[in-house]
Amino acid sequence: MIKIANVSKNYGDFKVLTDCTTSVSKGEVIVVCGPSGSGKSTLIKCVNGLEPFQAGEIIVDGTSVGDPKTNLSKLRARVGMVFQNFELFPHMSITQNLAIAQVKVLGRKQDEAMDKGLKLLDRVGLKAQANKFPGQLSGGQQQRVAIARALAMDPICMLFDEPTSALDPEMVNEVLDVMTELAQEGMTMMCVTHEMGFARRVANRVIFMDHGRIVEDDEKEAFFANPRSERAQQFLAKILHH
Amino acid sequence: MGYQWNWGVFFQPSATGDDTYLGWMFAGFKMTIGLSLSAWVIALLLGALVGVLRTVPNKLLAGIATAYVELFRNIPLLVQLFIWYFVLPELLPESLGNAFKQSHPVLQQFFASMVCLGLFTSARVAEQVRSGINSLPKGQKNAGLALGFTLPQTYRFVMLPMAFRLVVPPLTSEFLNIFKNSAVCSTIGLLELAAQGRQLVDYTAQPYESFIAVTLAYIAINVVVMTLMHKFERRIAVPGYIGGK
């Protein structure tokens, strides 16, 4: 589904990504972790072309992201993305947030888009908030709406960029529950997150990044039981304490 | 100090005999409003366009927009007015220049003033619009693009609706400025409010009454503009967000 081959990216002399190679198969759930500044968010943003890269190749469902001839908008419409800061559109009601891209990008009818939006809203447990505005919801609720908004486009895979990092601790679980459910239904997911409990429960593989390189790319069990690199061992030791 | 107050002066027939002095004032008032509103339409449309272009990734478009803003922002309004009124008609192709010079003098003055004020203010509006767009969280643009919107769609549906809401307060002060700046157009002979005030002094030798009336008229215009813009601001407020409930 997603193939990342020898991807490198730099800002001037500063190397953000160096020779990253990995892949995500259909139905697979990948967790990408690593210290801040390690390039994990940049890598996931390269997957749908929000960040350009200078070398290597990324193929999503047969389409090359880096190819200048690729219609990126078309590709992005099929790849769902959830952001750290939710990024709902504050001037639209929740239902409008869910419907607008369906109507303007996919060409669905307004009614049809509204119905689909409401169904997904129900699924993330927020039907009662349909007519509110994003600023009237809690962070956890906003993030669940953001997930529903991405799902409304019937994506072939979902990218999560630290979806719980900006949340109050008590709201983290409501978002992780939605993500877990999604994973269990067979959605292909690439998640940048520090939630190791989530990784343990639902990930197939864990990628560990440091200084722009993919240091480990392992089956979940192997990664947690016996990380190969010293850097990953230190990282796990630090964040698994609590 | 021996000044003879005479508020009745406004009701005396004017020197030309076809009107009262109050009528002169009212004519100037209408001219100021007509000029400022038409210039404001130009300023808003062009300013919005240029402000947006300053933020697009295309370097050429952004460069042109930046040059536009710097040009109109860095030349004094009065000098720009003289250029539009005295210099530009000479630089136009002869037939067009002559057509301008042969049109009704008031039309010439009005047209030059409207274009001048409109473009001058558009550069300032552009800066406000640009700062509004730049003050949005960067993730908003990414969120729009990630949903499959093209860049123009992302501006249209995601960024501009919020950016314009953010800049309503600074745009209100530009709107007020355009009424005040319109007084500069009296220097090319356009009989707007300030010019009528001065003319009144020449004809009646009652400067205090004249300019008190002019002052009150400008204040009245601006109070109305502020009230309307404040209402507008509240109407477009986003629930749970700046200024919203």
Question: Keywords, please?
Answer:
heterodimer; A: 242 residues; alpha/beta; six-stranded mixed sheet; four-stranded antiparallel sheet; 9 helices; globular; B: 245 residues; mainly alpha; 0% strand
Strand order of the largest sheet of chain A: 6-7-8-3-9-10
Would you tell me the overall average pLDDT of chain A? 94
The tally of helices of chain B reads 9
The mean pLDDT of chain B is: 94
Regions with little confidence, pLDDT below 50 for 5+ residues of chain B: none
Order of helices and strands of chain B: HHHHHHHHH
Structural class of chain B: mainly alpha
Radius of gyration of chain A: 18 Å
Using only C-alpha atoms, the radius of gyration of chain B works out to 22 Å
Helix/strand-derived category of chain A reads: alpha/beta
Q: What portion of residues of chain A belong to β-strands?
A: 15-25%
The sequence of SSEs of chain A as H and E is: EEEHEEHEHHHEHEHEEHH
Helix percentage range of chain A: 25-40%
Structure, explained:
The complex is a heterodimer of chains A (242) and B (245). Chain A has 242 residues and is α/β, with parallel strands linked by helices. Chain A is built from 9 helices and 10 strands. In chain A, the strands form 2 sheets. A 6-stranded mixed beta sheet of chain A has the order 6-7-8-3-9-10, with helices on both faces. A 4-stranded antiparallel beta sheet of chain A has the order 2-1-4-5, covered by helices on one side. In chain A, a hairpin with a 2-residue loop joins strand 4 and strand 5 (63-64). In chain A, helix 3 crosses helix 4 (110-123), helix 3 (94-104) packs parallel to helix 5 (139-151) and helix 5 (139-151) packs parallel to helix 6. The mean pLDDT of chain A is 94. Chain B has 245 residues and is an all-alpha fold. Chain B is built from 9 helices and no strands. The longest helix of chain B has 33 residues, at 21-53. Chain B is flat and about 75 Å long. The mean pLDDT of chain B is 94. Classes of the chains: A alpha/beta (242), B mainly alpha (245). The interface between A and B is medium-sized, with 34 and 23 residues.
